[in-house]
Amino acid sequence: MHDQLETLLEMQDLHMQRRALDEGGVRELETGLFEMGAEQAIDALEAKITELELRLGKSNQERFRHLISTRQRAVVPVLAGVCYGCFVAVPTSWAADADPNDKLNVCQSCGHFQYYPS
Ligand SMILES: [Zn+2]
Question: Which of 3, 7, 39, 118 is the most buried (most CB within 10 A)?
Answer without folding.
Answer: 7
